[in-house]
Amino acid sequence: MNAYQPRLADHHFILLDVLRAPRTLAELPALAEHADPDLLRQVLEEAGKFVGEVVAPLNREGDEVGAQWRDGAVTMPPGFRDAYQAFWQAGWPSLACAVEDGGQGLPAVLEAQLYEMLSAANHGWTMAPGLLHGAYECIKHHASDGLKSTYLEKIASGEWLATMCLTEPHAGSDLGLVRTKALPLPDGRFALSGTKIFISGGEHDLSDNIVHLVLARLPDSPPGPKGLSLFLVPKFYQDGARSPVVCERIEEKMGLHGSPTCVMRFDDAPGWIVGEPGKGLNAMFVMMNAARLHVGLQGIGLLEAAWQKADAYAQERRQMRAPGNTSKAAPVHAVNGVGATVQADAIALHPAMRRILDTQRAWIDAGRVIGYRTALELDTQKHHPDAARREAAARWCSLVTPVLKAAWTDQAFHGASACLQVFGGHGYVREWGIEQHVRDARVAMIYEGTNEIQAIDLLLRKVLPDGATALRTLLAELAVELSDSPAATRTRQAMARLARFTGEHLLPHTQAAGAAPDTPYWLADDYLRALALVLMAWAWSRIGATAGAEAGRWSQAQAGFWRWVWPEFEMRLSMLEAGLTPA
After folding, report:
1. CATH architecture of 160-285
2. What's the farthest any 2 CA atoms get from each other in the chain?
3. Are 8-138 and 160-285 equal in CATH topology?
4. 331 - beta bridge partners?
5. Integer Cα distance of 93 and 109 in angstroms
6. How many other C-beta atoms lie within 10 A of the C-beta of residue 99?
7. Helices (H), 91-143
8. pLDDT > 90 in the chain, percent
9. The pLDDT of residue 338
10. Which residues pair with 329 in a beta bridge?
């Protein structure tokens, strides 16, 4: 099957028409000069061209050949290094980095769309630059001036790649168990000793240097997460000497064969502290939060890639005539709105296949509205002159990021599996390429904080502590944005029901004397899913109100959302209510 290709008209419509990004950017002094719609289109057009022509064609071979380890060195699949060198030299990693750091100072939403396209085109390759933005933010905000002068511009440009070294064999989600040690050296550096696992891009030949950001413990540090500090250890020092950091092996994985997942051993490796002693998690979370948004976008991109394959196959695969169809051909806009026709015996016209395709399209399009809005809110939080508007942007990012990460990576895997179903038996063999999307997508539900942790973070850290004030404020703000329509009315009612359940039932239950302390943990996954569906309803209400003359392109997916996806909201709300009732 053909490799993924960006559908840039969809990107433009959601960014410029649904979200009206130029209006938002014009309010930000640092980005106002980039609010021109033609500029935004031009950047996306060039990004799509690079992704489609350079990165996407490497996906199949990257999966089949994979990264190769030998004697501590990792060789990437054919074409990967050349593509990466072209990528950073063209300035793509520096898209949203500050001009003073060697970046281009463009809006974060363009970077978000770029990485969504990259993930769709070649998830394994994209893992390498995927951590650059987080590493850049971490070094920019926490490193010393000396470290910034050496490393910041190299990371901003992408000339050097970076890793995030957190996990250890015994310490996965519970980072408080980290044992890697950092001993002071006479020259002000620290010698790091320990083993880190699951390190994406810990060793490779894509870039001339790799900057490792490592969580470790200083002597006499207290146990638990408060005893962790963050350190920077490069693969090569400024004098050209190689650090004593060894890649012991790479994991044999279910998917992502083009990305080396490394076991890294630090043998008294000299490095520098980043930020304050004992504040390592504070510095690292800057990197992790940036990564979580990008992982949510990965979910959207991976689902788009799977949908493209399934949609193309469904139009070409001819079997029995679709039920109720007596014509020789039918408009394909019943499936994807591009205005062509398909033969009457193409499986694209069968209700079972249309249901699969329309459901995934509903998730993709709504996810883009939510994901791109999150990127716009990041820029607003950073640059808006009004403090109240910055606070509202921070509220959006805090509440929506865990929802985007968890719900859309979950759908990427299950939706890709549904797209495989469109191929029947052909989907289960490697020839058609759809099975790779299923394998590659699965890990996104696990890394950067498992989806269960995202749900706990949402409910127990973001919703309950302030009495659900932030949540109710967000929902009220979103309700105001909706026009008058049946879809908007339905969405407002759902927002009110979720807010009412939270304020009148969940909060009193958790605060009651003798309440079971684990109740919110039982409910967290259903709560996140319910909020995801409300956000999708908001997104589709916005799309429906904007589509106008292009309604035909979007109507099938919109109908698919309300028919096949939205009923889940009632189920999740019922499960939440049942969870408060004693068994």
Report:
1. Beta Barrel (2.40)
2. 84
3. no
4. 341
5. 13
6. 12
7. 108-121, 123-126, 132-142
8. 85
9. 47
10. 343
Half-sphere exposure of 88 (CA within 13 A, CB side): 24
DSSP H stretches of helix in 97-217: 108-121, 123-126, 132-142, 145-147, 153-157
How far apart CA 350 and CA 278 sit, in angstroms, is 59
Q: What is the CA radius of gyration of the chain?
A: 24
Task: Look up residue 488 and give its two tokens.
Answer: 């908007």
Which residues lie across from 210 on neighbouring strands?
161
One DSSP character per residue, 444-499 reads GGTSSS-HHHHHHIIIIIIITTTTTHHHHHHHHHHHHH--SSHHHHHHHHHHHHHH
User: Residues near 469 by Cβ (< 8 Å), separated by ≥ 6?
Assistant: none
* Backbone φ and ψ of 429, nearest 5°: -105, 155
Based on the residue annotation, tell me whether 251 is a catalytic residue of this protein: no
CATH architecture type of domain 8-138? Orthogonal Bundle (1.10)
Where does 301-579 sit in CATH, by number? 1.20.140.10
Spans of all domains in the chain: 8-138, 160-285, 301-579
d(CA 280, CA 230): 4
Name residue, tokens 């990041």: 378
Tokens of 447: 């890394």
CB atoms within 10 A of CB 130: 25
Q: What is the dihedral of CA 337, 343, 345, 351, to 10 degrees?
A: 10
User: Rounded to whole angstroms, how far apart are CA atoms 302 and 305?
Assistant: 5
List the one residue out of 241, 228, 234, 245 whose CA is nearest residue 212: 234
Catalytic residue (one of 46, 431, 448, 452):
448
What tokens appear for 69 in the block? 């380890």
DSSP secondary-structure letter at 365?
A: H
Contact 270, 243 (CB under 8 A): yes
In angstroms, rounded to a whole number, what is the distance separating the alpha carbons of residues 453 and 465? 17
- Closest C-alpha among 71, 54, 72, 210 to residue 125: 54
Comparing CA positions, the residue from 349, 310, 313 lying closest to residue 329 is: 349
DSSP 328-361: SEEEGGGTT-SS-EEETTBGGGSHHHHHHHHHHH
Confidence of residue 331 (pLDDT cuts 50, 70, 90): low
The stretch 178-199 carries a mean pLDDT of 96
Helix pair 280-316, 108-121: axis angle to 10 deg: 50
Judged against a pLDDT cut of 90, whether residue 475 lies above it is answered with yes
Alpha-carbon separation of residue 259 from 127, 155, 160, 163, 428 (angstroms): 6, 19, 16, 12, 23
Q: What is the pLDDT of residues 128-171, one digit of tens each?
A: 999 999 999 999 999 999 999 999 999 999 999 999 999 999 88
